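User:
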Amino acid sequence: MTTAAGPRPYNFSAGPAAMPEAVLQRAAAEMLDWNGSGMGVMEMSHRGKEFGAICAQAEADLRELLAVPSQFHILFMQGGGLGENAIVPMNLSRGGRADFVVTGSWSIKSHKEARRYCEAAVVASNAEDGHTRLPDPAGWKLSADASYVHVCTNETINGIEFQQLPDLAALGSKAPLVIDFSSHVASRPVDWSRVGLAFGGAQKNLGPAGLTIVIVRDDLLGHALEICPSAFNYKTVADNGSMYNTPPTWGIYVAGLTFQWLKAQTEGALTGVAAIQARNVAKAKLLYDFIDGSDFYLNKVDPGCRSRMNVPFFLADEARNEAFLAGARAAGLLQLKGHKSVGGMRASIYNAMPLAGVQALVGYMREFERSRA
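Assistant: Predicted structure:
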């Protein structure tokens, strides 16, 4: 896309993140008047027929896109992933025990928050490895009476991703699996046969900040603690079609446009999420292969669990970090600075990032290395 100021930069932000340009253009075109209604979406009543149609279409498209089975409810909520760290235990723990697999910064926060509402046990951790590899499920110390098992399936800060969801039944657990898929939702298929509940903020792959997606199985509704606010009780939200309180209407609308964009994507004979997954594999391979082939850059994550979405990397000489970032900005490559807790660099290459953006980044990294040789 070209703007009045020239070609649009490539935005590698970890979130809120880059969105598909076609979605932004359509949202801009409909800002003052949606579908001839005389109103913008932000001005509509959430109980009016216009927004009712927008919300119903968004839900149907997400169900189709992620192949969500009929026994799961799709809820449009607020509070983000951090909010769900409290809302999940308030709905599922029944005041008992929940098991947590700690693999990085976000699962650490999830475990810490859940301790306010239930007995939260760490059954596996990769802390000794510096959060650079995943703990083998065969060694998880799952409890027999856990109300659920929590896993963050993509650690945005640490760059670790589960390439396959754990099979809790095969591990001897009857507890439902809860996954925080905030940073890789819709980037790959979900095996719903292994999942009881999935949640994620929209602001990385689906839309603007403010919207939270919760996909929850029927049998997990109706068990909320007495202290759970009504607006955060999954059964109440499900019974009211996500309209118990005013939902994030603009976020739902833009996410709906993103769902339509995702459904329309093709890669060879593949469509939708399968096409996006193939594209994400190619983008990640290009970047990791370059880093691995260089002595100038380093990625510390075990290759078997590297994230396709978030690629942290370090310069061998970190005294060059500021020069690297300044040059990147000048080249139209934005928000590459790593999270403050780990340092270095991080390239978030979500669904909306085209292959050309990763090619531009690799080209810049190669030239920066050559110029410092």
